[in-house]
Structure formats: C-alpha cells, structure tokens
C-alpha cells in the first residue's frame, strides 16, 4: 500500500493540491520551524495588548453585537470557552469527513500565516488532530457565510478544547478525551484572541469549492467523451469539431478544448467513417453539434472559479487580524461573497451540462430520431422497456440540478442584532453545488450506459479507439444489450466507474496534449 503523501505547512501557505491530499488522501502534515517562530513572535504582540488597559476587540472585549463590553483578565479564558461552546450551534446530519478535513486544514493554513495571533500550541494541536484522523462532527446547518463559517469552525474548535463530538480514523464516534489520549494530544485551553482566530474564516465554503473543482476537471473530460459516444451512436458527424471552426472563429479557450477532445475521441471511428459519404443530413441536432460550446463554457466558468479559489487560498482571513507591524485591527475579509458567487456560478454551469447530456440521451431512445436504433434500445420493444426508465431517472436528476442552480448568494438574512446585517450564504452555495456535482456524475453515467448500448447495437461496426476504451471499461462491470434485467444495479455500477476514476483513466491516453 502506498504511503500517505506528506505536506509541510510553511509561511507561504498551501495549494489546492495540498487541500485535496489532506481531505481525501490522508496526507500527513508537518509544520516548518519558521512558522512556529513567527507564531511565537506575533503572539507577543497579543500578550502585550491583553495586559494593556485599552480594550481591543477579540482580545479583551465581547464579540459581535456584544463587542462594547470590556472583559476582565480573570474572565478571558472563560470568554474563549463560551465563544466556542455557544457558536457550535449546528443542526442536521453530519457533513462528509472530507469536507471537515478540508475545513480544518484551511484553518490551519491561516493560523500558520502568523496573522491570527494564536500560540504555536493551537496550530500544533489542530495538525495533530488531522494526522491522527480525529474528525469533529460538523452539522449541516449553522453557517451564514459571514463572519465566515462560524458554526462549522466552532464545532472543530470545540473538539480542539477536548469537548464536543468527533470520530476516529474509521468513522466511529467516540469520546473526545479518549481520542486525544490515544493520539498523545492535550486539549487546548484557549487564551485571548484564539477563539475568534479559530472560527473567523471562509474555510468550509472554500474547501468545498476546491473539491468541486477537482471533481469537475474530470467530469468535463467525461462529458466530452459521453457526448462523443452519443454523436457516434446517432451517426453524427465529427466535422463540426474541427479546430478551424472554434478557436479562430470564436476564441473561448474552453470551447476550443472541448472541441479538440471530441474530435480526438471520434478519430479513427469505423462508425463515423461508415456514413461520411452519402449522408443526406445537413446538420446534427444542437445537443450533438453544440456540445463543445456548452461544455466549453463550463470549462471557462471553472477557470474563473479557480482564479477566485487561488486568491482565497492566498488569504489570511481573521477578524481582528494582526498586521506585520503588530497592529491588531478589525476588517471584513471574512465575508464570503467572492467564494459564494463562484459556487453559485458553477451550479448554473453544472445544471446546463446535465441538461444537454439528457437531451442527447433522449434522442437515442426515440426511434423517430435515433437513426434506426430500436425503441428505447430494447431487446424486444413492447415486451422489453429497455432504457426507458433510465432516462426518467436522468431527467429527475436534471430537474433537481435546475432547482439547485437557483443562487444562494443573492439572499441575506441579518443576524447578531443587526450587527451582521448582510451575509453571503456561501456555505449553502457550497452544499448545493456539492449535490449538483454528484448529480452530474449520475447524469453522465446514464448517458454513458445508454450510449454504450447504442454503440453495441451498431455492430458489426465498431466505435473508435477512445470511445471503445470507455465502452470496454463499462463492459467490465455492466453487460451489453439483452433482455430487460435489474437496471438500478447497472446504473450504480456505471456511476462507480466514473466516481473511482476508471473511466477517466481509460480516456487519458486519448486526450490531446
């Protein structure tokens, strides 16, 4: 078994690949000595302010609408505990383990920047939790995306204090003191400023954005492949995907890339070659001919979202923040609008990708449009229903993604006695995008399954090398045409082949350089 990747947290921050490695691949984290030195140096400024007579927000005052109250030194440890306990107010089902690990790692990255004023022990304990596989239970509801993902981060901070709920590396909920003892960790008694430093960030929404981008990178290649399979199965033309019809005429980079993919995926196809001469059709339907324009637009949307994610990764979000001069000052950088907007933008693109895939699928099932394929690709139409209801399932997923494309970021519900009177709802945008991406994978799995059966029904003609490679992977788990059989299991098997990377791996040799 390959060992887990290793990541060092330095002053320069972290990359999206680091987030994925920690969240999904159990990467072990170390902390550079320079980070620990910087944290100790910055902490000295906080200690000086804590001992001064002048109230400073987050150090010697209350929080939010209660920021006007000065807190006596003997009550400040209690203040930090109270902040975390009261803010760990989530409800609903636990969110996925990888989401929590991404959130924790991103908060650790910000703590390591030296701009939050925490002691080294706070960062060391959070990293220790990640390395030990201790995962706080974070509930679905609680974040408004401003001041950051307060409730989700507070559930994590509560575990850092030795309280709350957490699971071990195997996903079992166990007492937090027991988990800490096994890992050789000591719960942290938070000092001035440290409570706010642990909860004021966009880490939950950003972590989910980064993982969605990683998923979509693969799914867009797969969307190009399933579209190519559908074009091939419906005796469409590959000529509309030629390079000279794209970048020179309409220079959207994503469109050019998807057209290049589809042209490559259809190369050397005996099915395509079989009707290149003497085909009376002038043009294919939009869902076939315009696939690169739609998938390409999604690619460009992803590029914009990745730019926003990269900028947010470079941020050190906290309030108040410790400037390099040592000044501790309030700010509004915790507002999640930049991340929330692109989460919503991606949900629109994902919904439209699923919509065009479903239209391609439907054409293959309708004998009036499928170019001599049997109705619903059934073995004995009338006795057998073939793929009829698979399209129903796909259409239901498309309908749900259309609902999920309604933006969350245009909404705002004031909170904290109108102190926090405009919020981003970025967490909600992230949660619905996560569902949308999973639904898109199912939608493409249905298209792959149905297009694969249609390609088999074109025998003795064979698909091209690229689409044939996808079909071979599919046939390793799902049988070809025949009488009706239990279809749900085959749909789930097709989904698993997309989710575990098998299909994308088969495509890699056929992707243009």
Structural summary, described in words:
This protein has 513 residues and is mainly alpha-helical. The protein contains 19 helices and nine strands. It has helices spanning 16-25, 33-51, 76-87, 97-111, 120-132, 150-160, 176-183, 194-199, 203-233, 253-265, 270-274, 286-289, 291-313, 337-365, 388-404, 426-457, 465-475, 487-499, 502-508; strands spanning 6-9, 28-31, 91-94, 135-136, 139-141, 166-167, 173-174, 321-322, 328-329. The strands form four sheets. It has a three-stranded antiparallel beta sheet with strand order 4-6-7. Helix 1 (16-25) links the parallel strand 1 and strand 2. Helix 9 (203-233) runs antiparallel to helix 13 (291-313) and helix 10 packs across helix 13 (291-313). The model has no long low-confidence stretch (mean pLDDT 94). Pfam families: Lyase_aromatic. Its main location: cytoplasm.
């Amino acid at each position: 078994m390959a060992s887990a990747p290793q990541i060092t947290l330095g002053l320069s921050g972290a990359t999206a690949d680091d987030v994925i490695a920690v969240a999904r691949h159990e990467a072990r984290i170390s902390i550079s000595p320079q980070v620990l030195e910087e944290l100790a140096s910055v902490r000295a400024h906080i200690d000086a302010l804590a001992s001064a007579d002048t109230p400073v927000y987050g150090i010697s005052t209350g929080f939010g609408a209660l920021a006007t109250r000065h807190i006596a030194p003997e009550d400040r440890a209690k203040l930090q505990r109270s902040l975390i306990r009261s803010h760990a107010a989530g409800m609903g089902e636990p969110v996925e383990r990888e989401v929590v690990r991404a959130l924790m790692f991103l908060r650790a990255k910000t703590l390591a920047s030296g701009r939050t004023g925490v002691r080294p022990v706070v960062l060391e304990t959070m990293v220790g939790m990640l390395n030990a596989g201790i995962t706080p239970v974070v509930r679905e509801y609680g974040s408004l995306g401003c001041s950051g993902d307060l409730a989700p981060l507070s559930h994590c901070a509560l575990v850092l204090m030795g309280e709350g709920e957490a699971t071990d590396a195997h996903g079992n909920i166990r007492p937090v003191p027991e988990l800490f003892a096994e890992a050789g960790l000591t719960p942290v008694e938070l000092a001035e400023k440290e409570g706010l430093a642990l909860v004021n960030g966009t880490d939950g929404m950003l972590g989910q954005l980064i993982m969605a981008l990683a998923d979509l990178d693969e799914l867009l290649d797969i969307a190009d492949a399933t579209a190519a399979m559908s074009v091939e199965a419906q005796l469409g033309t590959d000529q509309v995907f030629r390079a000279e019809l794209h970048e020179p005429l309409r220079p959207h980079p994503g469109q050019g890339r998807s057209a290049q993919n589809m042209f490559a995926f259809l190369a050397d196809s005996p099915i395509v070659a079989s009707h290149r001469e003497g085909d009376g059709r002038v043009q294919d339907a939009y869902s076939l001919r315009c696939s690169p324009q739609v998938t390409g637009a999604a690619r460009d949307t992803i590029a914009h979202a990745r730019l926003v994610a990269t900028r947010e990764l470079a941020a050190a979000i906290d309030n108040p923040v410790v400037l390099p001069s040592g000044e501790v000052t309030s700010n509004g950088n915790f507002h999640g609008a930049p991340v929330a907007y692109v989460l919503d933008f991606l949900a629109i693109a994902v919904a439209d990708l699923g919509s065009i895939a479903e239209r391609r699928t439907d054409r293959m099932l309708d004998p009036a449009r499928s170019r001599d394929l049997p109705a619903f690709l059934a073995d004995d139409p009338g006795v057998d229903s073939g793929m009829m209801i698979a399209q129903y399932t796909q259409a239901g997923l498309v309908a749900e993604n259309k609902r999920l494309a309604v933006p969350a970021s245009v909404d705002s519900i004031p909170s904290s006695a109108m102190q926090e009177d405009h919020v981003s709802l970025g967490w909600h945008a992230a949660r619905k995008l996560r569902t949308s991406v999973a639904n898109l994978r199912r939608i493409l799995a249905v298209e792959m399954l149905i297009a694969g059966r249609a390609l088999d029904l074109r025998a003795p003609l064979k698909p091209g090398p690229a689409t044939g490679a996808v079909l071979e992977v599919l046939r390793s788990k799902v049988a070809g045409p025949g009488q009706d059989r239990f279809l749900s299991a085959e749909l789930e098997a097709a989904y698993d082949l997309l989710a575990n990377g098998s299909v994308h791996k088969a495509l890699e040799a056929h992707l243009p350089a």
